[in-house]
Amino acid sequence: MPRMSVEQRRSALIESAYRVIADHGVEGATTRRICAHAGMPLASFHYAFESRTALLCAVMDHAVPVDIERMLHSVMPAADFGPEPDIDALKQNMVRQFHAFVDLLKADPGRMQATIALGIYAHNHPELQQVGKVMYEQLYRVAASGMREIAELAGLTWTRPTEELGPLIIAATNSITLIYLSTGDDKVVDSLIAAVAEQLATYVTFE
Question: Fewer CB within 10 A of the end CB, N or C, for the chain?
């Protein structure tokens, strides 16, 4: 097996930590388990990170925002507003996009569970609180960017800055995730999606 550079080792550990957190929770993401998932000896961990806390910071700084951006962009191709977009077409499109998100959630629920678990864990550990806050700020920016992309596709204008609406998208995806993971109740998830689409539509005008 070729020798890994420090950067390659860091990258492998970050990705493995994210996956282990998805499967076992933050508390269950021990350095031993993470190294085993990455296929490297435990002794090599400190060549890449000075501590488990430093690794968790890297996961929140890099892996989570990139993964959420990938998930949100994977539903963007569903943006079909018809030849003459209107509010109803927009709401229908948003409902489709949130359902596409739910499909991704059902296929791999651990990904979103890991995001929420990391946020809660960071809040409860002072040394990680600022990193957790920055992680969510990055997620808000990812959501705001997606909303600007929707505006261009549909020829609409958001009546509030997308920087203010981005947190609403992340709050919605977190709520959908928690309800699905806790209850598996598709009917409640459908109702929540419809309500979020209705709310978002109140912030739209067409050019």
Answer: N
Residue 24 backbone zone (phi > 0: left; psi -120 to 50: alpha; other: beta): alpha
pTM score, two decimals? Answer: 0.85
User: What are the counts of helices (DSSP H) followed by strands (DSSP E) for the chain?
Assistant: 9, 2
- Which residues make Cβ contacts (< 8 Å) with residue 43, sequence separation at least 6? none
Residue 206 backbone phi and psi in degrees, to 5: -100, 140
Q: What is the CATH number of domain 56-206?
A: 1.10.357
HSE, CB side, 13 Å, CA atoms: give it for residue 29.
24
The confidence score (pLDDT) of residue 73 equals 76
Helix-helix angle 31-38:6-24, to 10 degrees? 110
